[in-house]
């Protein structure tokens, strides 16, 4: 029985990892209350086809980004906050997910970088956490069933 659980866990882990090979990013723009890109961002992969102005695009680099401009991000005369989600050509030099103040398209913005399938939404559970949970469950099941012999 424990071999079946182990095989099922490994199969689930393989499926999770293969899904991670296709990296997509949300792509959209919003300004103020206009558009679906603003925070809180409550869309997932299945919502994309039903929401105008929102798409999930393949991303060769694997790095997604989110840019927040104006609306009090800086003490500038911007009238509303603009949010853009997109695939970026490359991530930070140290390959670490992060958010920071920076300059983008000659404007001061707050920008976030992340690596993973559709990771540039508001809520994000790390795929590494999912892998860890699967491995721990498989390990516990293996130990539990080996004691029952």
TrEMBL record:
<feature type="transmembrane region" description="Helical">
    <location>
        <begin position="125"/>
        <end position="145"/>
    </location>
</feature>
<feature type="signal peptide">
    <location>
        <begin position="1"/>
        <end position="20"/>
    </location>
</feature>
<keyword id="KW-0812">Transmembrane</keyword>
<dbReference type="InterPro" id="IPR031424">
    <property type="entry name" value="QVR-like"/>
</dbReference>
<dbReference type="InterPro" id="IPR050975">
    <property type="entry name" value="Sleep_regulator"/>
</dbReference>
<keyword id="KW-0325">Glycoprotein</keyword>
<dbReference type="Pfam" id="PF17064">
    <property type="entry name" value="QVR"/>
</dbReference>
<keyword id="KW-0449">Lipoprotein</keyword>
<keyword id="KW-0732">Signal</keyword>
<dbReference type="GO" id="GO:0032222">
    <property type="term" value="P:regulation of synaptic transmission, cholinergic"/>
</dbReference>
<keyword id="KW-1133">Transmembrane helix</keyword>
<keyword id="KW-0336">GPI-anchor</keyword>
<protein>
    <submittedName>
        <fullName>Uncharacterized protein LOC105228338</fullName>
    </submittedName>
</protein>
<dbReference type="GO" id="GO:0030431">
    <property type="term" value="P:sleep"/>
</dbReference>
<keyword id="KW-0472">Membrane</keyword>
<dbReference type="GO" id="GO:0098552">
    <property type="term" value="C:side of membrane"/>
</dbReference>
